[in-house]
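Notes from hallway chat w/ T.B., transcribed later so I don't forget. T.B. wanted the structure written out for a chain they're using in a teaching module, and asked if we could keep both sequence and structure tokens in one place. Agreed to drop them here.
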Amino acid sequence: MEYEAWFGPNAVTFQGTAAKPKLQSADMKPVGGGYDSADPAVIKQHVAWLESLDLDAVSIDLTNNVSCIFDSEWFVRKYLKNFNGCPMWRTDYQNIRNNTGNLYPAWSKLGTPLKLIPLLGGIDKNVLFKDIDGKTAFEKEIEYFGVRMRQYPGLNVIYGGKPLMLIYLGAAQDPNRSDNPLWFQIRKFLKKHPEITCKYTFKMIAGYLDSQPDLWATPGTPTGPIEISPEYGFWSVVDRLNPSCKESLCPYYPTYNLATGNAVPRVENFTASIATAGQSGWGCPNPNAPPYCPDDALRFGDGHSYATFDSFMTYARQLDPIFLIIDQFNEYVPPDEGWNANTDDDIEPANLWGFGALDAVRRQIKLYRHQVGLHANPIDRLPE
């Protein structure tokens, strides 16, 4: 499950979000309500809800403004004066880092069997610029999580014999290596730093691969889930799927990547979502307003609750991936990205859908585990 620890009186607030969480923290009242991601009571309740879903792990999202978080004041002055609100919001970004890092001691104290997978930022080219100390923000983020992963090894997911980290690349990816796109720069960087790759397994994860045919293993119009070419091997953070729409209007299917090096090929990853926007956003003709676009995949489709998620999970049961990712628990977008419950993909109990999403996900995971024959903790059978 994708998870965010972004919220607090000194970080992101819930003002202006489409949905409001059921949970509340006292120190959030002066900033309009909601909860603080560092609140022990909130952390305890989140862990209880996540455990109730029969999950194995969450990916913890620290992908935005990585250079602003980790680099020096010299770097900020030189490169980030007008970049994504840095330096104005630098302290807030660093509080999000602190909230995310705090999950290691907090979850360890609770004794949860759930694991944590760092979701690193590979969006901005400045993450590979060297700071005054000679290190890049990308290195520093890896080191930040690495310290905590060594301190709390029981919270790591081991894949390929090493603790797993994900690198988020954003949406559209340039497939042409000759253009030296950022994803290729990151791969070259890692290849040049075996002292890092000997410690961790890295996988790159990106959005809307369903709409990027240059990345597919097989060209043409798909009629079902799409394999990503092993040349790229990208995992999906979110893809489009609208089972109620005619293929001529919605030729979109979620993607997967095949694990390499196995005697018997197996799907490595697949991502299921509660709702996904169409190519033009949620509204047509205005992407920020009703009515819905014909290729929108809504939370509640055709009068059936959680029809989109049910369809994703039908494909998941067929593919039986090593990693089934669910997008997502608690991002809380503003109204221009999701103006009602139908256009929001969060799962945490909130005012727009109550506990309905939690129940729907729990039901589908139970069905998934039963049908594919996974035991209670399938991470135990990951290849070493």
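Follow-up for T.B.: The chain has nine helices and 13 strands. Might be a good example for the class.
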